[in-house]
Write a structure and sequence with these properties.
Strand 1 and strand 2 form a beta hairpin. The two termini are 40 Å apart. The protein has a two-stranded antiparallel sheet with strand order 1-2. The chain is mainly α. It is globular, with a radius of gyration of 24 Å. The chain has 13 helices and 2 strands, in the order H-H-H-H-H-H-H-H-H-H-H-E-E-H-H. 73% of the residues lie in helices and 1% in strands. The protein has 2 domains: 48 residues, no CATH class; 212 residues, MetI-like fold.
Length: 274
Amino acid sequence: MTRAADRPRSILPTLVMLGVGVVFLVPFVWLILSAFETHPTLQLGGGGSLTLHNFSSVLHGAGFVSSLGNSLYLAVGTMVLTTTLGILAGYPLSRYHSTMQVWFIYVLVFLTALPIIALMIPTYDLFVSANLINSKFWTVWFLTATSLPFATWVARSFIDAVPNELEEAAWIDGISRWGSLRQVVLPLIIPGMSVIAVYTFVSAWSNFFIPLILLQNPNEPAAVNIYGYFSQYGVNYGQVAAFALLYALPPVMLYLLVIRWVGSGFALGGAIKG
């Protein structure tokens, strides 16, 4: 049984977590209420009767559907490229060891922590010189380059957990190294692949600064398009809230889909322990 003197110590962490939860929950509640109110304000509730007019205005607004498509193009393209290249780069780092490997890992960690604003001036100059401004294709490649250090680092860590003996057994059966990567390693690192995929998708989906610099209308994504609801004449809080809720749906759906799919993938991890 818990002694009376220990009860304050056990209650304190719970109260702290409840306080943190409320801090994060209140803005989310305001967002939902404002999206369905006729005259929302910065105050919580009291913005008039409930309505769907805000969602209708956003869906029929200029550029919303196209900007959402641009966001999907950037996010999905970055996710596929980063996940694929991250695994291909992480595999040799895990399986081949050299004296320079440690320094290469240090470089990856440094690039992961490097602020993106430090790269934007030379990148913008390069895009202008090569006439690549307003190109979604090359913007995807730049987003991939910024996400690749983290993806390589994570992929290497998950591949390290796969014993070499499993691949060696496959080689004895006549499977090539490329075949062992596809048939042995990849099924066992599905959770790691999912981490990389979700992280890069959300990062590219919510990225505002890079598309603002490199893309222009009509190729701007939703993260930039929502900025148009803020003007010198004020902010339409209802439409901003409705836009934000619609904008948040694809990442949430991807997360739920991955959780449902990866649930069976974790069972494959038993082969590592066997």
